[in-house]
Amino acid sequence: MSCCDLAAAGQLDKAGIMASDCEPALNQAEGRNPTLERYLGALREAKNDSEQFAALLLVTKAVKAGDIDAKTRRRIFDAVGFTFPNRLLTTKEAPDGCPDHVLRALGVALLACFCSDPELAAHPQVLNKIPILNTFLTARGDPDDAARRSMIDDTYQCLTAVAGTTRGPRHLIAGGTVSALCQAYLGHGYGFDQALALLVGLLAAAETQCWKEAEPDLLAVLRGLSEDFQKAEDASKFELCQLLPLFLPPTTVPPECLRDLQAGLARILGSKLSSWQRNPALKLAARLAHACGSDWIPAGSSGSKFLALLVNLACVEVRLALEETGTEVKEDVVTACYALMELGIQECTRCEQSLLKEPQKVQLVSIMKEAIGAVIHYLQQVGPEKQKEPFVFASVRILGAWLAEETSSLRKEVCQLLPFLVRYAKTLYEEAEEANDLSQQVATLAISPTTPGPTWPGDALRLLLPGWCHLTVEDGPREILIKEGAPSLLCKYFLQQWELTSPGHDTSVLPDSVEIGLQTCCHIFLNLVVTAPGLIKRDACFTSLMNTLMTSLPALVQQQGRLLLAANVATLGLLMARLLSTSPALQGTPASRGFFGAAILFLSQSHVARATPGSDQAVLALSPDYEGIWADLQELWFLGMQAFTGCVPLLPWLAPAALRSRWPQELLQLLGSVSPNSVKPEMVAAYQGVLVELARANRLCREAMRLQAGEETASHYRMAALEQCLSEP
Any idea which of 131-145, 439-453, 503-517 has the lowest mean pLDDT? Predict the structure, then answer.
């Protein structure tokens, strides 16, 4: 009997209760235990603090003696409440010869008993003990002390019970439990395995909050786990494969961890394995690919061989899972393989600093083509009842990544699947529209491809846009897309996504994919304008689109950092205006005048005169805003100049409006101030086209050009058509 038991016994002898009555007899599921009843009776009849304290000690010892049912637990709580465990946890006046930690151990034991009731585990009197419980995890002491070990076990029981409540993880994280668990695990003292298990649970429940509150400590655990993984030679390396994905931070993974993880994975995947050994390794590799791209794979021969191995294994796994109809698909594993295939697609299409050599790229493209064929085969079997499943979304995602880079292979199979893809994208779009849930649309691509998605899978259209952009150039796929209603769907989607970027919405929280998606939509519409002009004229959705473009461009061209999107909107609008020139909306309305004014601003501000050292004459140069993105911008700019030229004879009010903007005068002034040798022939042709049409359309334009030395400038640049036009009355 411990010193505390003796002290308690001395007090209870006076009350007629023997300490020897404390026996492990509380395991009766039915009825009341007589021993416990006597202790509780002594507690009720205690005449002073000393007798009450002694009775409570024996109640606590009885609780620890064996399992008790829920009714008994509740009766103990009704009799004891939180007052006694509070006293035991905080008392500094232990009986003579009784160590403080023994009392604390008894207090934690009683608290652990109460916490097995979920309602009590969420009680404020338990939650406010979290900081105290945290200290027990990291306190120093004799590792062989049975009371101390018991206290640690009870502490984990309390914390685990709190973590199992609805708001428990939030309270534990705020109370510093994550850091305490990290330190307990790194100390490798008694119960460190329980610390790791509870950490895993908290990360699974609230990953972002855990990293926000305890990033340094979690990174220390990741370093330890990564080092263990790299060194492991036994079955523990497969267990670590399952744990490590949970400990990858949302920010940068430390380089030393990446080295250890890659080395460990290379050793595992390079061996002959069973599926239960290989699958966790593939899932870990997929998480690393999602978090770091290919940065975690070393350059050189070893890195390229490892990447090729990863993609090869992923493709084999996908084919085995999807080619046989009716077989059970391990969706988490196949989804991880999709992420590795996506990494392979990125590396095979990278021109600079790719990890892969050309022969490896050719080989992997061939292997991935077969795997994509299996994905198409699977999607062809998907019925309406499965369309909202995350795995279907993941399968569409990898197909979209493939089509973004490769549409020539598997063309027949892709064309056969297009009707399904349009219906699938339309279904998800309408689900989101009906729920008025735009936020889910913008969050789609943030979902890890290796974890299950939300109830509503996400924005499938954004994943398919790049592939559809390529396919709308080809006659066969374009006809299928038009027949299935894709253009109308894309118009609605564009207008919805545009709404996210309009005033009143916080654009700072939008991912770049929203703006990229809008640009890709513009490219698809440009393809349709060129290849299917009749569709633009007859489908009412394009009239709505034109109205949005006209009202949006004036504000868009003024916004910093959005020049590329403005170029897409301006060029698309100008090309559509040629086809819709008879529309009442384009007959000099305020919206149409605002749009063409903004388009002139975009076209006119691209080039400036720049002085050159040692020369009296300036040269034509790109404006600073245009210079950095001209490679992406120039095709749109030239197309916009051509489209504006075509609009001038169709819209009689446009030439006078251009004259009022002083664009033709300023353009001639610019050309007159720079060396003709600095102006490329294609620029001369573009400028001449605009000036000629403006001069032909309006007498006042011709007079203004002559006053700006237009004929002399035309002669210098050999603009024969402009020179002839200005020589006429």
Answer: 439-453
The 3-state DSSP class for residue 683 equals helix
β-sheet bridge partners, residue 610: 619
Distance between CA 74 and CA 58 in Å, rounded? 17
Query: How many whole angstroms separate alpha carbon 679 and alpha carbon 671?
Result: 8
Helices vs strands, H then E, count in the chain: 38, 2
**635-640 contact pairs (CB < 8 A, 24+):** 636/567, 636/568, 636/570, 636/571, 637/567, 637/571, 637/603, 637/606, 638/682, 638/686, 639/526, 639/571, 639/575, 640/567, 640/570, 640/571, 640/574, 640/599, 640/602, 640/603
> For residues 183 and 187, what is the distance between their CA atoms, to the nearest angstrom?
6
Q: Which residues are CB-contacts of 488 (< 8 A; sequence separation ≥ 6)?
A: 539, 541
Convert 56-91 to b/e letters by CB count within 10 Å (16 or more is b): bbbbbbbbbbeebeeebbebbbebbebebbbbbbee
* Residue closest to 185 by CA, chosen among 174, 193, 173: 193
CA of 515: how far to CAs of 71, 432, 569, 675, in Å?
60, 19, 12, 38
Q: Which residue has the tokens 């993941």?
A: 394
A 10 A CB-CB count for 379 gives 18
Q: Is the pLDDT of residue 449 over 70?
A: no
pLDDT (tens digit per residue) in 94-124 = 565 566 677 788 888 888 888 888 888 999 9
500: left (phi over 0), alpha (psi -120 to 50) or beta: alpha
- pTM of the full structure: 0.84
The string of DSSP codes covering 73-110 is HHHHHHHHTTHHHHHHHH---PPTT--HHHHHHHHHHH
Which residues, including other chains, have CB under 8 Å from residue 688's CB and lie 6 or more apart? 714, 717, 719, 721, 722
CA 330 – CA 322 distance, rounded (Å) = 10
- What does the alpha-carbon distance between residue 568 and residue 591 come to, in Å, rounded to a whole number? 18
Closest CA to 225 of 250, 202, 199: 199
Instruction: Please tell me the distance from the alpha carbon of residue 448 to that of residue 291, in angstroms, as a whole number.
Output: 9
For residues 333 and 280, the answer to whether their CB atoms sit within 8 Å is no
What pLDDT does 13 receive? 40
Q: For residue 115, what are the contacts with CB-CB under 8 A and spacing of at least 6?
A: 121, 126, 157, 158, 161, 162
Q: How far is CA 47 from the centre of its chain?
A: 64
Tokens standing for residue 308: 């090729």
Tally of CB atoms within 10 A around 32: 12
Contact 246, 203 (CB under 8 A): yes
pLDDT score recorded for residue 25: 34
The pLDDT value recorded for residue 728 is 80
**Running DSSP on this structure, what letter comes out for residue 198?**
H
- Give DSSP secondary structure letters for 7-46: HHHHHHHTTT--GGG--S----SSS--HHHHHHHHHHHH-
Residue 325 CA to residue 64 CA, distance in Å, equals 56
Rg of the chain over Cα atoms, rounded to whole angstroms, equals 37
Contact indicator for 236, 228 with CB cutoff of 8 Å: yes
pLDDT at 456 over 80: no
